[in-house]
Write a structure and sequence with these properties.
Glutamate ABC transporter substrate-binding protein; three-stranded parallel β-sheet; 2 domains; Bact_solute-bind_prot3; Solute-binding_3/MltF_N; transport; 9 helices; alpha/beta; D-Maltodextrin-Binding Protein, domain 2
Length: 329
């Protein structure tokens, strides 16, 4: 008797298996998958960042008024700290609550290695905590959106706002300010080999800047024939110039953070007018304003201001010295 091979199935079994496979294939062919949708567009341009606005050149000649000609905002003279009020609340809490922009390189940003907030503005806030609470680490930083922080101050969600936005000639009525802690010339950041040497080369080009009134007004004045891309965050300008959505970035102090992130960028152009920066506080907290101004006065005189500038903003040029304070009392 011949035994069948153990690995060999009967012929009719193989036939049924083949028929079954064919049935499956036939059934599959009867219900084809829906075709992959086809996308429109050629993807040659990246979309603009959220909140960005394009401002076309105006047919009206800009006013021949420089921001630097505006009177420097005067603040309250440093005085003896009180035991109550805003200062008393901060002492009782044990921390200074500071609203900051967390994505402006070298001014207020998260260190990619440590994950901690650092930068020129962050160090200013720590110096206030040093004087008020005896410890520069007793600061609670809270993220600041694209607004000026007035609502956070009004709801007592922050004691002060430190953000890299220049003061305008007409400051907002819902904020009060410290003395000016930084004054920087407005210049341009361009790609190497761009052929742009100054504002005169910006005609019929697109230029990025922050959407705050002071920055837009200054750019409209120095480059009236340029198209402006106004963005809510300074780092949006870095992305825009890297993706070639703009030909240049116009600004002041924050330009140091842009060139530090991309070796293919450079700062060019003559110094035009100046942008000024101050700490924002809630109206009515005069005791806190005077205390902050006292800290800023110390930084000017003991060399701390120059040390902070050299650490964070040296790519803008040699430290010019701290701006002189202007007091109204």
């Amino acid at each position: 008797m011949v035994r069948p091979h153990p690995e060999r199935r009967p012929r009719f079994t193989r036939l049924l298996g083949s028929l079954g496979l064919g049935a499956v294939l036939i059934a599959g062919c009867g219900a084809p998958d829906a075709p992959t949708p086809r996308f429109s567009g050629d993807f040659t341009e990246f979309p603009l960042s959220a909140g960005a606005q394009l401002i076309a050149p105006s047919d009206t000649p800009p006013q021949d008024t420089e921001t630097s000609a505006c009177a420097a905002p005067a603040s309250l003279r440093p005085g003896t700290p009180s035991l109550g009020g805003a200062l008393g609340d901060i002492r009782a809490r044990g921390t200074v609550v500071v609203a900051v922009d967390q994505n402006t390189n070298l001014f207020s940003f998260r260190d990619p290695t440590t994950g901690t907030l650092t930068g020129f503005g962050v160090d200013l806030a720590r110096e206030v905590a040093r004087d008020l609470l005896g410890d520069p680490t007793k600061v609670e930083f809270r993220p600041l959106g694209t607004d000026d922080g007035a609502e956070m101050l009004a709801h007592r969600d922050a004691d002060m706002v430190v953000r890299p936005v220049a003061l305008s000639c007409e400051g907002p009525q819902d904020l009060t300010f410290s003395t000016v802690y930084l004054e920087a010339s407005r210049r341009l950041v361009v790609r190497d080999g761009s052929g742009i040497a100054g504002p005169a080369d910006l005609a019929r080009r697109r230029v990025c800047t922050h959407h705050d009134p002071a920055s837009v007004s200054a750019l409209t004045r120095i480059a009236p024939k340029a198209t402006i891309l106004a963005v809510p965050d300074w780092d949006d300008c870095l992305m825009a110039i890297q993706q070639r959505q703009v030909d240049a970035v116009a600004g002041a102090a924050f330009l140091a953070g842009l060139v530090a992130q991309d070796p293919n960028l450079e700062i060019v152009g003559p110094e035009t007018d100046s942008a000024r920066y101050a700490i924002g506080l809630a109206p009515g907290n005069d005791d806190l304003v005077r205390f902050v101004n006292g800290t800023l006065e110390r930084l000017r005189t003991d060399g701390t201001w120059t040390a902070l500038y050299d650490r964070w903003l040296s790519s803008l040029g040699p430290a010019p010295g701290p701006p002189a304070p202007e007091y109204r009392d």
